[in-house]
Amino acid sequence: MPPRLIIPxxxxxxxxxxxxxxxxxxxxxxxxxxxxxxxxxAAQALDALLFSQGHHASVLDGDxxxxxxxxxLGFSPADxxxxxxxxxxxxRLLYQAGQIVIVAMxxxxxxxxxxxxxxxGQDYLEVWCSAPLASCEARDPKGLYARARxxxxxxxxxxxxxxxxPLAPAxxxxxxxxxxxxxxxxxxxxxxxxxxxPEREVGHAPLPIA
Length: 210
Hints:
This is Adenylyl-sulfate kinase. It catalyses: adenosine 5'-phosphosulfate + ATP = 3'-phosphoadenylyl sulfate + ADP + H(+). Belongs to the APS kinase family. The chain has 210 residues and is α/β, with parallel strands linked by helices. The chain has a single domain (22-193), classed as Rossmann fold (3-Layer(aba) Sandwich), CATH 3.40.50.300. It is 40% helix and 12% strand. Strands 2-3-1-4-5 form a five-stranded parallel β-sheet, with helices on both faces.
């Protein structure tokens, strides 16, 4: 087959224009960690906090992506890589639209997380949700650890598949001891430190976060 001629269309609205309109910059935070480490809970808490302050944010949750965009993928090494590739591309589109994108996915291997870094550059922030295996297994809200221990789930991260600890994350988030509200605040401070959010928030009442 002849090669397809693909020429990306130039953008009309620049990142600087979007930042000026939104009052903040764009970034992608990847919350990575073991199953049941609290990634989705922290992501939703940060989303609620940013919403209460009038900021533009979106959450891409691993399980939610697998019910739609990635519903055709399994958990083989190749499918996991493709799962993360699609998530990185979706995050990039939202990032280009000026959003703060919060991605909650296991992303167990350094190679998985490298896809985000490669596609997003300096505005990619890797956050390790650091909860010990025993704590995650004790939570086990979906009963997946129990099934993995019983041999009913193959390639389950932490039990029958590896999780590679991030070596140089932008933030280590102790989801084992911190409340969702404290996690959200730590993430907000990270965004301020990286120049994504302004130093002070004005004009919006905060939402209560448990």
